[in-house]
Amino acid sequence: MSIALSSRVSLPALAVVAAGLVGCSEQMPGQASAGDTATRGPGSSTPAAPSESNPGGDVLAEFDYCSLLDDGELSDLGLVAGELLDADVTNRPNCTWKTKRAAGGYDITVFYIDNMGIDEVNNADAEPVLTTVGEHQAVKFQSWGGGNSAIALKISDSSRVEIVATGSGGGETQDALAEQYAKLFEQKLPKGDG
């Protein structure tokens, strides 16, 4: 598989930087702000509807990614409610969850890329490894000096959903977290063709 490399800043790096800048609120668990005044709780999702930025009504572009984990799952996984990363930073539909503990914690970020497939991962430290997650072809890789582990699920030849694990000491533990959440999220993503 040929992977396009680029010197430009990539989305996972921006997501990681933005995740560090965006704090999670434990005061309003289950609520995430969509960048306007509307809030949605876990389990809710935004229906696909045509909009100025999404004229075709792409269900994955309009999906509320913070709804992927409900209150029970958040509790079981030890995570605080997900928050959207600043759209001005990533310009992608997304969500980030953080562990409730400060030491040894981790972040999980998921985001949708509607203009690059899994063969166009441009921020991997080494050649991404082909794999399968549920019903999706995927690639797994580490990026930015092993700073995070990621799995990109193929939605179409020109779109993907990435799940990125950051923290938790890196290495195999971080890889296992990326795989765990990729399997969980893959089952819950709406069917879309990117």
From TrEMBL:
Protein name: Uncharacterized protein DUF3558
Domain of life the protein comes from: Bacteria
Biased composition (Polar residues): 29-54
Region (Disordered): 29-56
Lineage: Bacteria, Bacillati, Actinomycetota, Actinomycetes, Pseudonocardiales
